[in-house]
Amino acid sequence: MESNKGTDRPDQERNIFRIFYVLKRALDEWGEHHLNLMHNPRFHITYMPFFMNIGLSGISNNELAMLMGVTKQAASRIVKELMASGYVRAEKNDIDQRSSMLYLTKAGEQFYIEVEQATKLLEQEYTKLIGVRNYDTTIDGLLKLIKFHESKPLK
């Protein structure tokens, strides 16, 4: 069977589902590769957004769930895995007894800094490729798309 790639379906390259799928897969592969370089192959790449949003200053478990757009139970499962990895610790929230404050451990802080440095290098590669203005516009556009979907109830 002969491939018609690029001839009868010029819209395929710009198909939004393909774009997001390929980009997510590429970012996951990049992340897995860098986790191996950091001698941390057991850290699951899907936990990275949660880990990085705990950050160096900490966050409540409720805020983390809201920020990530998941249920408290879903966030709690990932936080338990992060705690088991030794990178995150939880303390009672003095302000809201129904939630916990999440903080990085010393090992978590070091890992966070390593990930942040690797991410900055990737962002530098992106800005070399498409320019700072295009990169910033892309990020701003993606944030608007997220806000659009978060504000629209499914019908």
Describe this structure in words.
- With 155 residues, the chain is mainly alpha-helical.
- It has one domain: Winged helix-like DNA-binding domain superfamily/Winged helix DNA-binding domain (Arc Repressor Mutant, subunit A, Orthogonal Bundle), CATH 1.10.10.
- Helix content is 61%, strand content 8%.
- It has a three-stranded antiparallel β-sheet with strand order 1-3-2.
- Helix 3 (61-68) crosses helix 4 and helix 5 packs across helix 6 (132-151).
- The longest helix has 25 residues, at 106-130.
- The model has no long low-confidence stretch (mean pLDDT 90).
- One of its GO terms (biological process) is response to stress.
- It comes from Mucilaginibacter pineti.
- One of its GO terms (molecular function) is DNA binding.
- InterPro entries: HTH_MarR-typ, MarR/SlyA-like, WH-like_DNA-bd_sf, WH_DNA-bd_sf.
Structural class: mainly alpha
According to CATH, the fold-level topology is: Arc Repressor Mutant, subunit A
Helix content: 55-70%
Tell me the Rg in angstroms: 19 Å
How is the largest sheet built, in terms of strand order? 1-3-2
- Count up the helices: 6
Query: What percentage of the residues does DSSP assign to strands (E)?
Result: 5-15%
